[in-house]
Amino acid sequence: DAKTTQPTSMDCAEGRAANLPCNHSTISGNEYVYWYRQIHSQGPQYIIHGLKNNETNEMASLIITEDRKSSTLILPHATLRDTAVYYCIVRAINYGQNFVFGPGTRLSVLP
Amino acid sequence: DSGVTQTPKHLITATGQRVTLRCSPRSGDLSVYWYQQSLDQGLQFLIQYYNGEERAKGNILERFSAQQFPDLHSELNLSSLELGDSALYFCASSETSGGARAKNIQYFGAGTRLSVL
User: Fold this and answer.
1) Phi, psi for residue A109 in degrees, rounded to 5
2) Which of A19, A83, B6, B94 could form a disulfide with B109 if both were Cys (CB 3.0 to 4.6 A apart)?
3) CB contact under 8 A, B97 and A95
4) Distance between CA B115 and CA B85 in Å, rounded?
5) Closest residue of A to B100, CA-based?
6) A93 inside 8 A of chain B by CB
7) Which residue of A has its CA nearest to B46?
8) How far apart are CA B41 and CA A2, in angstroms?
């Protein structure tokens, strides 16, 4: 079973920030938080991952709470092309374990 | 473009038949993962290979098998196909299977859509 809880769906206005929450209250000390997205039926796309510090890359920012029990993925200026299902996954980084995907959050960016 | 190549993109076949799906990982990636995505089950992990050896098994049926060849490409064989096997099949690759510094980010291919009629 997935170790994360995400809202089923969210809407966001184009050009505004999209904040996608994820709860992972049972996360272990050696587990990272990964975010992927899947646009329509394309292959899942890696977005970002982090352990305990906030992370930022060209696609998004990841904010992890101090107790690491929850996190938020931020798309700073959402576009229509960001409409997708977003998956939050926790997994130990070593030994190349497979990802356990939950149902994710369906983000709809509205014009 | 993730760098992971899957062929064919679409496959239509009949019940009882056997098909082979192919995956070429990103250059330098030693690990290959196979996932199945059906409408009612979401993304399910099937099997992982690392440098030619099976490393982990998930919800893979006995009718399904896979292998990874010396050139690191992988094939997923599906036999005695049933209507319920209709799904998207994704392959992913990552740089390594172990090591504390490995990011182990999985990069996914575009998938093979299998339709069993």
Assistant:
1) -95, 120
2) B6
3) yes
4) 8
5) A94
6) yes
7) A98
8) 13
The predicted-structure confidence for A45-69, as pLDDT tens digits, reads as follows: 999 999 998 999 999 999 999 999 9
pLDDT in the model for residue A98? 79
Q: pLDDT tens for residues B61-113?
A: 999 999 999 999 999 999 999 999 999 999 999 986 555 555 678 999 999 99
Name the maximum alpha-carbon separation found in chain B: 46
A59 touches chain B (CB under 8 A): no
CB-based contact A43:B110 (threshold 8 Å): yes
Within an 8 Å CB–CB cutoff, is residue A99 touching chain B?
yes
Tokens, residue A9: 């769906």
Distance (Å) from the alpha carbon of B36 to chain A's nearest alpha carbon: 11
Q: Which residues on chain B are in Cβ contact (under 8 Å) with A102?
A: 42
Distance of CA B68 to the CA centre of its chain: 10
- Condensed to tens digits (0 to 9), the pLDDT of residues A17-49 reads 999 999 999 998 888 999 999 998 899 999 999
- For residue A18, the one-letter residue type is A
What is the rounded CA–CA span in Å between residue B21 and residue A23? 36
Q: Which residues contact B8 (CB under 8 A, 6 or more apart)?
A: B21, B22, B112
CB contact under 8 A, B2 and A95: no
Distance CA B98, CA B88 (A): 28
Compute the distance between CA of residue A36 and CA of residue A25 in angstroms, rounded to an integer. 19
| Type of residue found at A6 | Q
